[in-house]
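**Fold tokens**
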Amino acid sequence: MKKYLNKMWKKYKDSLWKIGFLAPAFILFFYIVGEPFIRGFLYSFTDWNGASKEMNMVGFDNYMKFFKDPTVLLPIKNSLYYTAITVVVNNLIGLGLALLLNNSFKGTKVYRTIFFIPFVISFVLVGFLWSYMYSDVIGAIFNIPSFLGNPKTVIPAIAGMSLWRDAGYVMVIYLAALQSIPEEFYEAAKVDGATALSKFKFITLPMLTPAFTINIALFLGWGVKVFDYVMAATGGGPGKSSETLALYVYKYTFNYNKVGYGQTVAIYMMILVFVLAGSAAAFFRKREVEV
């Protein structure tokens, strides 16, 4: 019996050590993410106001109310509009920077660092910084009103904050993918007389598909749930012209004291994020090229 127990101990010792090291991280994750999510999901079936000790179960009333609520249409539109701009523009600018800085010339590493530095700045600080830039710098130099004060330009202006902060991150992902492409592919194409455009179309782009999977799926998710830029720069204004889904959730949960409905919208927003990001990831993964 003792020999059997020793044998079993040796067999599972490494697994127990691994579980022991991972356990604190899992526990922390559960209390920071898992437990609040479960609570929010349960609250979505109630009419809790966030302050009272009493709450009533309302079943799926909140979920049905979402489809009858006309006020949620504008936040959905704003979130999707912002997402479309950031996904397209950030990826185009990031890819352009990566292609430019993939070449070896004096100061390449310095330029890479300069373009990446904004990414380490917090969302809220970027929101306050660009709110000042739009009103007191750009507005003063060109004698124009702030883009954040115009309902037609406020969403593109907020997307501009994302471009300034996140383009460097996109660049790094594409740069890593570019540097992983075997040089032999380009040499073989050169021997065959391929033009620079042909090399880019038939070698570079297909080999960048894993990077597209990461960047496009990531920015779809970030775009739909954007909150910090809007909260810091406009608070949803002017009027409600920059109110996003995440800000809509925040207002219903904390300002209007309708936690149940606010959490319901948050659940729908999470589903939208999973659908968009998951679909994009699945689409590009099918087209990834193995070397």
